[in-house]
Amino acid sequence: MDFDDKYQGTITMRKALVESRNIPAIRTLENVGISKATSFLKKLGMPFKKTLSLQNGIGLYISSEQLAAAYAAFSNGGTYYKPYTIKKIVQANGVTKRFHATGKRAMTPATAFMITNMLKGVMTDANGSGTAAKISGLYEAGKTGTTQYPDDYLNKVPANSSMDAWFSGYTKNYSLAIWTGYDHQFKANSYITQPETEISQQIYKSVMSYVSQNKPNSDWTQPNDVVATNRGGTTEYYVAGYPGTVTDNTTTAAGSYSIESSSSSNNGTVATSPRSNEESRTNESSQSASTTQQPGGSGSSSGDGSSSGDNTSSSASSASSDASSTESSSTGGNPSDSSNNQNTNSPDTGNNDVNDQ
């Protein structure tokens, strides 16, 4: 089951992302494959020495800086730029040395556009998990994330408490990632309550509102190879010529679920048949394994965070979508280290149907 102890059945990727549902993310990773997903992450500046597993569909040890840079690639149409902190050096003799990053294609413009279109709903949809981050009138997209306590620790914290909370959001100008939490989440009173999970969203809203003043505010443009279609009153998108059938030899062979050919009205959507109850429980175990990891790093010692003792802290990193320097935006432009790797739960999925079972 998911965070609300319920199954949704077959739902769209849009709904899964908007409501931050974990099971569809794991099943999408299983369908895509660990190898392909790992290669995609590497293109977005997130290499991993250890082999990833299905549990990483909802959690990875990465920093707010890495998140901001990765989402900037979705913002600019698919090009990844490695973050850097120095834009130029002006010498005493007046000579200026300028620095810039060389971008590398991480995904197609179609992928960037469709994911961005779905992530808009995180803040605008009534059931969105990030509505507290919404900035009126601003074209933006984003994703929430929380880290849950291990099952054997739940009786030591209030119901619905979290170890930490994230929010990552972006416009066509900036990408911003926020982490909030305590340095030592297993000490007494070092949990995040349900209302406090919105603090990261509120920080994003404040900072993004400020930096977006007097900046162009425009929506993302639909690429030529992306086609719009109407499904149940909602405009969905698919890549022209996308096949109606997707074959997953690994999952089909394992008997976990099958990929069915979509009808012409679905325009390339993917429907999956439900797992058995036993298979669902196995997937839940993988999910729990991911969310029971204690975040690494020293909490607020980097980025925009500050703490005394074991007080709550926040780490904020931003990256301009056009590949200018990465900065700790809430300090007015001071360089951000953001070396604090945390476990962020941010499903990255496509624009097809998945099964929340």
From TrEMBL:
Domain (Penicillin-binding protein transpeptidase) ranges: 6-184
Keywords from the named record: Glycosyltransferase, Transferase
Transmembrane segments: none
Gene3D superfamilies: DD-peptidase/beta-lactamase superfamily
A Pfam family per the record: Transpeptidase
GO molecular function annotations of the record: penicillin binding; peptidoglycan glycosyltransferase activity
A Gene Ontology BP annotation from the UniProt entry: peptidoglycan biosynthetic process
Region (Disordered): 257-357
Protein name (database record): Multimodular transpeptidase-transglycosylase
Organism expressing this protein natively: Lentilactobacillus farraginis DSM 18382 = JCM 14108
